């Protein structure tokens, strides 16, 4: 059967009869309704009422689905696949998967922080801080925590343990104070964004945030949670520490502008006292700072260097520096306040031991090969070193060869 010539009709007249023959010899199509403007094409059906809802409401509805239901929803159509793949829906599910089960000497962690106090190790896991008793030989932890300190609605970013008190800053922008022995706890809103770092000395708390401010808080009786000073740092604050003299505090920032990432502020007035260093490159953010004495300070960060500062001699240049051999960012640093320094790298769980009297690394440990994870935090004693990675807590025993 030949294709009809242009302008011809296979039934002889437009719209005549119940169903003109289709040009491909198939079943006849129904006649279009009369008075519709003469358009022979079938009109598209109206969109489903579901798509009339705003995106925020659709995401709220989808937030009640588990992983299996979201996967099935993604198979319905392209638009639902795009909606069900949004990060905001999977973030809660991902956190639940990352924080379950023991691996090696600890649970799966998410950017953990820890403090070592005698025979207990305090470890942040998601929005909680858990206290684990160390085994008799110090080579492991008891499987179940002895105590759990909660209060944050988001992950704990950092915390400190001072004088039987835990002070923590969280992703919910709040600061929580817990007393180790008792049910006493206080929570107050501190920053508009997550509290990246805190320190606590002499009844005062200092905090640094992604909202580009550092704040000084009172914990004295009758003034608990009162903000004494707000410092505009003009950059995200990653690390903070109070001087042992309780007269000043240092902030380590992201170094995204033209300001030194290391600055010292007066604790009483909140005024800038001095800047440390002049040769930082853009992006050389300081991730950790540690006071050895009121005048000696260690810092490390994204520019792969450990720097040793003596404020008595010079604030423009550090007195000594060590470079990470594999050009990795340094997430954390600790010192025995004598000759030994321990650092944690951003790749493959590398922990390095340094001697201040030498220019090169003394010893290194690769804790997470072949998978890569930063060393988020480390603490050590005379016999053991504890390193917290994304997937496990590792213990190094210095007493065995």
UniProtKB/TrEMBL annotation:
WD repeats: 188-223
Domain of life, source organism: Eukaryota
Alphabetical list of PROSITE patterns matching this protein: FBOX, WD_REPEATS_2, WD_REPEATS_REGION
An example Gene Ontology biological process: SCF-dependent proteasomal ubiquitin-dependent protein catabolic process
Protein name (database record): F-box and WD repeat domain containing 4
Region of interest called Disordered, as start-end residue ranges on this chain: 1-46
Annotated SMART domains: FBOX, WD40
Recorded GO CC terms: SCF ubiquitin ligase complex
Record keywords, A-Z: WD repeat
Keyword Mitochondrion: no
Natural source organism: Serinus canaria
Compositionally biased spans, kind Low complexity: 20-29
Domain F-box: residue ranges: 47-93
tRNA-binding keyword on record: no
